[in-house]
Amino acid sequence: MWLMLFVSVPLAEAQTVRITGTVQDAQLGAPITGAPVYLIGSTGVAVTKENGRFVLQDVQAGTYILTVVYEGYASESDTLVVSGEADVENNFRLNPVRAAGEEVAISPQTRDQGAKSNFALSASQDSLRSELKTVCDCFESAVGILNDAILLRKKYENAEQYQRDREAVEQMNALLALWRTAQYHCLTGFGTKLFVDSACNRPDKISDLRKELDSLGIDT
User: Fold this and answer.
1) What mean pLDDT is reported for the chain?
2) CA-CA 20 to 30 A from 103: which of 1, 42, 78, 171?
3) pLDDT tops 70 at residue 24
4) DSSP string spanning 133-168?
5) pTM passes above 0.85
6) For 143-171, what is the mean pLDDT?
7) What would the DSSP string read from start to end of 40-72?
8) Contact by Cβ (8 Å): 146, 210
9) How many domains does the chain have?
């Protein structure tokens, strides 16, 4: 899945509570306005106000992933165990990320079946956004980007060898910037629809690719 899907297990006739918090710039401490905050495991979504604060109402007991995605920042997620007896406060401090250049030159890679052919070649953030018109587009593009990142990292026997190759690190940064652009655009456009299995959308595939990258020392 896109952000490591956890299924909530609400209790029958349980009381509901609120989840509140703030989203701030980690470097400046300034509130971030208009950031969508998703309660994965439910249909809940909130948008931060001018003071960076968000509120999710009527949350039942269960285990959830609370995640915030905002363009220009690395996404953040926390696992929440909600008892159903007390409101929950959870704050986020997002780290700015360096934007990718307009043109990303990456050598062609061979991907798993289902990935968009040569997706990451000469891709700009603007052209990427224009391609992401459906949930299916989002899935296909995400698989292409993440597979490219995995293949790039696997060229190196270990993290130290990879880090010594500046060109590889720059290529990886460009891929990750495209991933963040797709992640933000798709979540803001389609929300929790991204976490529903269909003939052309497999959230578990996204989750597996992200876990593989994490095991290789690449944080998505």
Assistant:
1) 81
2) 1
3) yes
4) -SHHHHHHHHHHHHHHHHHHHTTSSSHHHHHH-HHH
5) no
6) 94
7) ETBEEEEE--TTSEEEEEEEPSEEEEEEE--TT
8) yes
9) 2
Cα torsion for 158, 161, 164, 168, to the nearest 10°? Answer: -80
Section 187-207 average pLDDT: 84
Domain range for residue 57?
A: 17-94
Q: Note whether residue 154 is domain-resident.
A: yes
Which is nearest to 122 in space by CA: 108, 138, 106?
Answer: 106
Whether 206 maps to a domain, the answer reads: yes
Q: Could you say which DSSP state residue 11 is in?
A: P
N-term to C-term CA, the chain: 13
Q: What is the CA radius of gyration of the chain?
A: 18
In the block, residue with structure tokens 């629809």: 193
pLDDT at 13: 52
Q: Tokens in use for 216?
A: 């290789």
pLDDT, tens digit, 9 for 90 and up, residues 63-76: 888 889 888 888 88
More confident of the two residues 49 and 98? 49
